[in-house]
Structures are given as structure tokens and as C-alpha cells.
Amino acid sequence: MRRMTTVTVIGCGYLGAVHAACMAALGHDVTGIDVDERKIAQLAAGQSPFFEPEFPELLQSSLASGRLRFSTDMAAAAGNRVHFLCVGTPQRKGEYAADMKFVDAAMQSLLPHLSDGDLVVGKSTVPVGTAARLADLVDEAGSGALLAWNPEFLREGFAVQDTLHPDRLVYGLPAGDAGKTAKDLLDEVYATPLSDGTPLVVADYATAELVKVAANSFLATKISFINAMAEVCEATGADVTLLADAIGHDTRIGRRFLNAGLGFGGGCLPKDIRAFMARAGELGADQALAFLREIDSINLRRRVRMVDLAREVCGGTIVGKRVAVLGAAFKPNSDDIRDSPALNVAAQMQLQGASVVVTDPEAVDNARRAWPDLAYADSMTEAVTGADLVLVLTEWQEYRDADPEAVGELVAARRMLDGRNALDPARWRAAGWTYRALGRP
Ligand code: UDX
């Protein structure tokens, strides 16, 4: 019989809410805490504040098991053994650096509730050096609690599976006996994935913090690499999708994360590479990460290129053109619109005089709140009706499956821009569409 641990999850956003429900599913007794009363009320009622496949079911079954509850009161952490810090570290306004105010506030309000033998576990993505600084705070408070760093690698859209069956676990531990005690507790928490054979990397604080930003930097680099190749393909008439297939067969390279298109967005990759550059600068290692500035520029350039391509296929101008944008979320199977390339392109086109209508299977409500000046449609049919140009900017399955003939009946002109290389060009061209994509002839 596995031992049950009493667990606090502080911060019930994307990461925390999923982590809390998964910890309960693993058999632990979990309290999720957040300062946002509305979010806590929703979660406690079994409603997900965001779209995430599998999460609502898991949340409801965990609540029903009696092993999961939510609170806005940090005092609810008292008496638990393990306290996960899952609050956000957004990009600071006008700067590259991460804003640490939520981490610092959560830590300060947790400190009075810690006891001897407790373990604080950082999961948020933070500038390297944060764990050591927070460990000092825990020490100074004198409770006898310890601190570990345990970065989270979940992807939106696969958050539940990624948490229950992670690719690897990483522990950043203090030195000596404290490290041994912290490891034993974490092993207890993760007994199920560990016994399923999940690889474990045990490291110091700084390495564990760096694993997360290094992984995200590598992923961003892979995407911008293929998008840089797409730029060269556009200049030569080559096809970046075939190029990616061919180089991806080399197992040293691999095909995943080589999908050329509009590039990366979301709440992680863009802000994480910027915060990493900012932190490296503070540490005097900015030259080492100078390439990430280029990764960021390549990524942002794709958005501009998309608008240029729209102008090109519309005969030199998009002024007054009715444009249907399919996709608002930063990627499919998510309603997250943070740093969404699709919405950025839609807004640029509107600014340049096009009449833009955006649709998305899940993200329209979020998009409407963040970008109230754009026009929205509740369905693809409504969005494309009368359009002079259609753009697929988030590759939802519904758009991949669209029938060129049926869509063609609704539009004013059969012009398709595939911003994600998600459609079959031959199929759309056969139905009389002008089909253009990034990195393809
Ligand atoms: C990412 C990391 O994958 C995850 O490990 C980390 O914990 C958080 O950040 P996420 O932000 O959910 O996860 O999205 P991801 O699936 O990585 O996609 C990021 C962006 O890259 C999306 O906008 C996606 O459309 C884009 N992308 C991805 C590409 O443009 N091409 C690809 O080949 C892959």
C-alpha cells in the first residue's frame, strides 16, 4: 500500500489546478489554495476555469473522492507535509525579466504556516537563483521546513497525461541530510510515476531551475530553426515540410517540433526565453544566450510575413477585404490566447484596413475579452461566409478536416492561407483555391 501524503498546491492556475487534481488522483490528500475567490469557487464546484481535455472529469472524480478541496485561506496549508508553489511568473511590462511578485507573495504568506518536517516544493518557472533565495527565507523563518525545486514540463492540451505520466522528474535538492530528507518525501509524492519507470534526475537547485528554461529554449530554438529554413525555402521555391520530414528522419534531430508556420506563442516559450536572457544578463553570461534574441526575432518575423502574404494573394492590398481568421488560441486543444500568433496577425490585418472576423472552437470568449476591437464569429461557417480570404492560424482538427468544396461555396473568393502547414495543398488547389503557406512554393 502506497503512503498518502498531505499536500498543498499554492496557485490554482493552469499548472496548479491540474497538479492538485492529479496529486489527488495519485492518492494524496490535497488542498488547492489561490487568492482568486472566483477561481476557487469554480474549482470547488467541479468546473474548470479553462479548457483542458480530461481535466474536468479528473477534477470531479478527485473532489468526489474527498481527497481534494480548495480554499482562499493560506491557513489551510497548516498541517500538510508538502507545499507546492505553482503561481505564475509572467513577463514584466516593458521588460524581458520575469515578474516574481506572485512567488514572493505566496512564499511570505506560506511561511507562518510551516512546521518542522514540511517540504516546500517550487514548480513555477523562475530565474535561476530563486530556489536558493527562497530556501534562505524558509531557514530564517526557523520552522525547520525544507525546500526543493521540481520543475513542471506539462504541455497545455496534454496537461493531465503529462502530469500523471511525465517524461522525467527533476528534483533540485539542498546538500547533505536535508537533501536526503527532501528526496524521500518527493519519492513518496511521486511513488506511482516512479514505480512506472519515470526517469528521475536528482540535482542541485540551480541545475533544476535551469533544466526548465533550457528545455523551453531548446524547443523554441527547434521551432525557429525550421521557420528560418522556411524563410530560405520561400526565397528558393523549396518546400519546408518535405525538408522537415527529411531531416527529421535523422533520429539525432527528430521530427517533433519541426512544424514550420506561424511560430510559437502561449504563456511559456516566449516569456521564458526572454526571462532567461534577462537573468543571464544579470549573471554576466548574456553572450551565451545572444542566440535566443535571434530565435525570438525569427519567431516574430513569421507573423509579419503572414500579413505580407495576405496582401500578396489579395493583389497588393487588404484594405476593405473581408478576412476570415480560423483560430485564436495559441495552439489547438487550448483556449489560451496569451501571446497568440493568430490574434496578433488578425489585429495587424485589421490595423491595415481589412475587415477581420475571428473564430475558434474554444477561445472566442477569452479572445473577445483581451482583444475587444476584433470581430468574432461563433462558427467556421459564419466566419468564412462572404470572405475574400481565409487564414488557418491555429490548426484545430475541425479546420484540418474542412471540405474545400463546402467552404468554397460560402466564400466570396477562394483564397486560402495556411499559417500552420495543416492542410493538403493538392486538395485545396483541386477545388479551385489559391493556396499559399509559409515555407512552401
Ligand atoms: C511548452 C512546453 O512544451 C512545455 O514542456 C512547458 O512546460 C510549457 O511550454 P505549451 O506552451 O503548452 O508547452 O505549448 P507547446 O506545445 O510547446 O507549443 C508552443 C508553441 O509552439 C505553440 O504556439 C505551437 O503552435 C508552436 N509550435 C509547436 C510550432 O510552431 N511548431 C512546432 O513544431 C511545435
Account of the 3D structure:
GO terms for molecular function: NAD binding; UDP-glucose 6-dehydrogenase activity. With 441 residues, this protein is an alpha/beta fold. It has two domains: 198 residues, 3-Layer(aba) Sandwich (Rossmann fold); 218 residues, NAD(P)-binding Rossmann-like Domain (Rossmann fold, 3-Layer(aba) Sandwich). It is built from 18 helices and 14 strands. Helix 13 links the parallel strand 9 and strand 10. The longest helix is centred in the middle third of the chain and has 32 residues. The chain is globular, with a radius of gyration of 23 Å. It starts with 5 loop residues before the first strand and ends with a strand. The protein binds uridine-5'-diphosphate-xylopyranose (UDX). Uridine-5'-diphosphate-xylopyranose (UDX) binds next to helix 9. Uridine-5'-diphosphate-xylopyranose binds next to helix 9.
Instruction: Compute the CA-based radius of gyration.
Output: 23 Å
Helix proportion: 40-55%
In CATH, the homologous superfamily of the largest domain goes by the name NAD(P)-binding Rossmann-like Domain
Work out the strand percent. 5-15%
User: Which stretches of 5+ consecutive residues score pLDDT under 50?
Assistant: none
Assembly type of the shown chains? single chain
Spatial strand arrangement across the major sheet: 3-2-1-4-5-6
List the helices and strands and how they pair.
Blueprint: E1 6-10, H1 14-25, E2 29-33, H2 37-44, H3 55-65, E3 68-71, E4 82-85, H4 101-110, E5 119-122, H5 130-141, E6 146-149, H6 159-164, E7 169-172, H7 176-189, H8 191-195, E8 200-203, H9 205-236, H10 240-248, H11 269-282, H12 290-313, E9 322-326, H13 341-351, E10 355-359, H14 364-370, E11 375-376, H15 380-384, E12 389-392, H16 397-400, H17 404-410, E13 415-418, H18 425-430, E14 434-437
Parallel strand pairs: 1-2, 1-4, 2-3, 4-5, 5-6, 7-8, 9-10, 9-12, 10-11, 12-13, 13-14
Helix pairs in contact: 1-3, 9-11, 9-12, 11-12, 12-13
This protein binds uridine-5'-diphosphate-xylopyranose.
